[in-house]
Amino acid sequence: MRKELDSIFKPRSIAVIGASTTRGKIGREMIHNILLAEFQGKVFPVNPGSPVVHSIKAYSTALDVPDAVDLAIIIVAKEHVCEAARLCGEKGVKGLVVISAGFSEVGKEGKKRELELLAVCHEYGMRMIGPNCFGIVNTSPDVRLNATFGKINPRAGRVGFITQSGAMGEAIMNHANELGIGFSLIASIGNKADISSNDILDYMRDDPNTDIILMYLENFGNPQNFTLIARKISRSKPIIAVKSGRTKLGAMAASSHTGALAGLDVGVDALFEQGGVLRVDTVEELFDVAAALSKQPIPKGKRVAVVTNAGGPGILATDALISNGLEMPPLSPATIKKLKKSISAEASFSNPMDMVAGAGGREFKLTLDAIKDDPRYDAIIPIFVPPVTIDQMDVARNIQKSLEGTDKTVLACFMGAGEKPEAIEYLKEHNIPVYIFPEAIAKTLALLAEHREWLNKPSGKYKTFKIDKADKAEAEAVIENAYAKGDLSIVGEEAIRILQAYGIPAAGYEYASNAKEAVAAADKIGYPVVMKINSPPILHKTEAGGVMVDLRNADEVREAGNELERRVGKLKKGEKFTVGLQKMVAGGIETVMGVTIDPSFGPLVMFGLGGIFVEVMKDVSFRINPITDTEAKEMIRSIKSYPVLSGFRGTKPVNEKIIQDTLLKLSQLVRDFDCFSEIDINPFIASADASACKAVDARFILQKR
Amino acid sequence: MRKELDSIFKPRSIAVIGASTTRGKIGREMIHNILLAEFQGKVFPVNPGSPVVHSIKAYSTALDVPDAVDLAIIIVAKEHVCEAARLCGEKGVKGLVVISAGFSEVGKEGKKRELELLAVCHEYGMRMIGPNCFGIVNTSPDVRLNATFGKINPRAGRVGFITQSGAMGEAIMNHANELGIGFSLIASIGNKADISSNDILDYMRDDPNTDIILMYLENFGNPQNFTLIARKISRSKPIIAVKSGRTKLGAMAASSHTGALAGLDVGVDALFEQGGVLRVDTVEELFDVAAALSKQPIPKGKRVAVVTNAGGPGILATDALISNGLEMPPLSPATIKKLKKSISAEASFSNPMDMVAGAGGREFKLTLDAIKDDPRYDAIIPIFVPPVTIDQMDVARNIQKSLEGTDKTVLACFMGAGEKPEAIEYLKEHNIPVYIFPEAIAKTLALLAEHREWLNKPSGKYKTFKIDKADKAEAEAVIENAYAKGDLSIVGEEAIRILQAYGIPAAGYEYASNAKEAVAAADKIGYPVVMKINSPPILHKTEAGGVMVDLRNADEVREAGNELERRVGKLKKGEKFTVGLQKMVAGGIETVMGVTIDPSFGPLVMFGLGGIFVEVMKDVSFRINPITDTEAKEMIRSIKSYPVLSGFRGTKPVNEKIIQDTLLKLSQLVRDFDCFSEIDINPFIASADASACKAVDARFILQKR
Fold it and tell me: For the segment A454-488, what is each residue's pLDDT rounded down to a tens digit?
């Protein structure tokens, strides 16, 4: 794969098919850009209509090119693309970049054309980027390839960039140029008919010129694969991604745009979390984070010092930092003592350290010198609001002089310095990113600190519980029985049996068909008990008044039995009235666990608190299956209502290990049987007392066979 | 007041005291700015050291100035400010702007100096802005005053700006200049020793040159007053504010910075909500919103049409719009039919309407023409990502031509158009604001749509319930009794009595001192009952195991009574064991209501759901007292868990009217008695059944006398 992609990203010779006439300006711009970037190989325009393009001799077909060709860029009208590709194949071309649009993104006919094109590639062993893409870039000095048709010749730098949208790709390249951010490799992947974003991620992992990777994504071809690749790369090269199509309507637009199924947002969040990808919401944030990562280390922790010459911005920065979850420890007494010797007494000597408006280069140097060696900080934010009396350039030089070589993360803020950009330019050149507003710094730092936590945490293990052959057979029997009956929903005792087969603690059932039998069953179980209508089947039992809880003695059970029978009313022919009785699990906390099968992400494992928390507050966590033990733990701890589980108002914390194992067992269950479309354990009672932790009710929905 | 402020904002003659030597460059810059802006009156430098400043004759003291002086700007060292002010008073100066720092912001001594300065102002009937401020601006053609010492001569425009931080003021002015936003009036209010932000707000309300008002605030002098003023102004002129010091740490920095108590964030949010102020988090957003409001109408509703020439940005916009609560109705069949005649068949004909990359001016014009008359939209967002093949200027002209005169709100997005700003400039000049990223548009539109809702909603009434004299006396007796006992906490039956006096439904108590009495009491109340230890007093009864719920018969009551007595253990001398019994209110939803007294905002009324919701999820709403009936209703509806009250899973919605009235009665209670420092009703049972709605427990904490 590596070698195949080399022929695309490091070609020695290129043919541009459709170099001038067919697609109007695009072909000419492409040649122009290739020349402008000083491509280190040879370029051959191919165009039957014009013998010369941009002063270069052009050929009628790829076959006429006198030299060997590594890469062909195809820009001809959609109807001629397959033919052009075939000629490239005959010529022995190794890689294609197909710019032309009019393929799977425009419907059925296009999809057919795309498959045909792919078949040509397979036939001749060519690899392809596109179709419907914006081109590729490699700024490596021995390549210098800009095979895009934009107005921008991207600067060289250490950022790799993968984009699924050509338009967004161009917009992002323009914006990067304005910000002075340089690229190593750029790939606009278009419809991803052959080469996917995963392939290019993998290629960038080994690229010595790439330190960080930016992605603009609209959907995922193979999310499981993405997680695996990202998980590996993220350990050494941070990946920052904007995934659009987040909201439901947004996703609809994505789907009509790309002809692909858009991802559920919870799936995407889980994917990025599990893969260690830094997810940003906007293109602006993408660059804020890229600017920091391309020049500064990832902070060791969350502790930030703010040094400012003005109160207002210091407060804004503090607000933004704290509300983004960062910490601002006060200055140490030793630092304060040191600073009081040389800084105006009107300064505040706290964090933010407000040196007041008179402060210039000298004060910044003194203060930053004192703070940069203090181990209580992981990051430093110098803020400067230029008063007319202070020399900005002097401030910039002193900030740089002081902080050069520090291992702390430094992000500077120069507010309202628009008219004198030299100071800002100076800092940027010396690897200190400068932001206009402190809020952008806070968001960026928060994301980096989170990534540090991700890097620090154990990578987790995929656990496999030993399940007895007999137990597995038991679960299988329940499933097969349901299929045999033509009933795709497994509930009640049958569902409990599957859980028990996989060692998930569950409250068993006793059945009764009248009040008298119910009392006998309750006596056997022990009071208090819960009684539910078992047949006739009712879907939402609680809402329908089909559940009686906390029955404390025989009298109450008898009364409840009669009442339920009354509520059921007349039975249809062949139906029988029965109730199920369970031991009432008291004093625990209701949780919900489950699995749902997402069309693009496969099984997602879910956890949350029960009742209102899951249904109104939507306070749940998702992970893509399979999950590691660490991930199961995180699922529990990442819900907002976690304090309810960890000991709230003096109650004992619940036994998390049992919840964790139950999630892992669910994960294993869907790996062992790939027939489920949904699993719900609701409620699973969590308690400090291990023996009281139990699934009370569960439901399995089977896929159609 | 108006006339007094006129002498400051519309002076005919100014003296600049300390025009050159004392504060170094500041005085010279001030004179320079006054001249540069072409002040329409006379300016007199006052400086004992130099006879000429900036080629203008200077005078030794204010008294030496030959003409009458309306406004004096004082820039001398802090020690000389009072003396300079006194001479101004002698001279008959009407207003002061005191730039000099070193007053209440630097501690006790400074505070003393500030009071002294204020006394001088009072003595001579002068009004003052500052001290410790950045100056003032009035761009009105008959005034043209720029009495600031920044590097910027602000453009004239229709935006009023009030800033509490000089540094932020300068930064914001710089940024505004870059964005082409012009100002009518600017006031840097510094320490607000005399003239407050409320005074200036009031002044801007009547200023014919001001259409919208921006504020940068760090604290509030008189929040109640602010709400009243803002509520009036917001109906005609939108107010947009950044309030810093949001988070706890941020507030600490604000407090050390300004020497004032920083506001609790919930108070600020309530204040802005009740005053109809558009609250933004960052300076960037301040300008995003200002740009929209200064050029476009507030949208009539939330329904947005997006018209784009590229899929990616369309998806980003959709994501951002939907997640900010806006709506995107699909195109009408009639519009689609119309568009299909003239737009490429590859376009998507949905919302976002993606005209695909070939679209230029013609397509924008056709599409926008079809959409602008469609009553299903309140706002239109044209998005353009410049492909190399399209003439940007042509696109801009066609967007403008189509949308000129529409009553819908138009905000345009030009992504990555950095190199050719002419098109953007063209649109801005024609009153269409242009943003680089769609997310900024979404946030801005959401805020404007929210403001429209605020404008549309009934302004609400302050309700006063008729309370019987005897009832009021009863409440007073309980309070006085507590003071007499020296007990600042009123709980149990006493607390219930206050509620009942104000017509708040509450569950009464019966008392018993042993199990036998308890059974008699329970028989009287009717089962099921709740039993709580009444004495000895225990603060957190539930945690201490001092509450038994759902006792269903005499046996259970007897057993519970004995158990509680056992739990209390040995009594101290003089103590007696008693329990209180209440009717158990079943089937309702626990809510919490209360009042807390904030040091800067006064009483805040609170509402939320009980238990975990208030303690873990912090899902509560606050309003500043007094509250209107509309506000009480909003308090209930604005919590996240509101669906639990409005009918969740088929349950009936609770009786909101009773909750609303209870909040209004609490509001009245704290107006009638200003002795409370805290009131808590926890729980108040809300139910569909009005007779079941009841306060079960309450606590009043009295202020020390």
Answer: 999 888 888 899 999 999 999 999 999 999 999 89
Helix, strand, coil percent content, chain A, rounded in steps of 5: 40, 20, 35
The third-level CATH classification (topology) of the domain covering B510-584 is Dna Ligase; domain 1 (3.30.1490)
Query: Are B650 and A311 inside 8 Å of each other by CB?
Result: no
CB contact under 8 A, A311 and B257: yes
> Measured at the alpha carbon of residue B66, what is the angle toward residues B65 and B72, in degrees to the nearest 5?
35
A318: nearest CB among B253, B387, B617: B253
Whether residue A18 contacts residue A27, with contact meaning beta carbons closer than 8 Å, is answered with yes
Domain ranges of chain B: 2-293, 297-456, 467-507+585-705, 510-584
Would you call A507 an interface residue with chain B, using a CB distance cutoff of 8 Å? no
For residue range B518-558, what is the model confidence (pLDDT) as tens digits? Answer: 999 999 988 999 998 888 876 666 666 788 888 989 999 99
Equal CATH topology for A2-293 and A296-456: yes
Question: Which residues 337-376 of chain A have a CB within 8 Å of chain B?
Answer: 346, 348, 350, 352, 354, 357
> How many CB pairs below 8 Å do chains A and B form together?
272
> Is A165 in Cβ contact with B314 (below 8 Å)?
no
Q: Tell me which of B170, B252, B316 to substitute to probe the interface with A (most A C-beta atoms closer than 10 Å).
A: B316
Instruction: Look up the CATH superfamily of A509-584.
Output: ATP-grasp fold, A domain (3.30.1490.20)
> Closest residue of A to B439, CA-based?
A282
A296-456: CATH homologous superfamily? Answer: Succinyl-CoA synthetase domains (3.40.50.261)
Q: In sequence order, what are the residues at sequence separation of 6 or more whose Cβ sits closer than 8 angstroms to the Cβ of residue A614?
A: A592, A608, A620, A682
CB-neighbour burial class of residue B697 (10 A; exposed 0-12, middle 13-18, buried 19+): buried
CB contact under 8 A, A284 and B439: yes
> Token pair for residue B180?
């082409």
Contact between B598 and B267 (Cβ < 8 Å): yes
The CATH number of domain B467-507+585-705, selected from 3.30.470.20, 3.40.570.10, 1.10.1270.20, 3.40.190.10: 3.30.470.20
pLDDT for res B221: 76
Q: What is the Cα Rg of chain A in Å?
A: 32
Q: Are B675 and B657 in contact (CB under 8 A)?
A: no
Report yes or no on whether pTM surpasses 0.80: yes
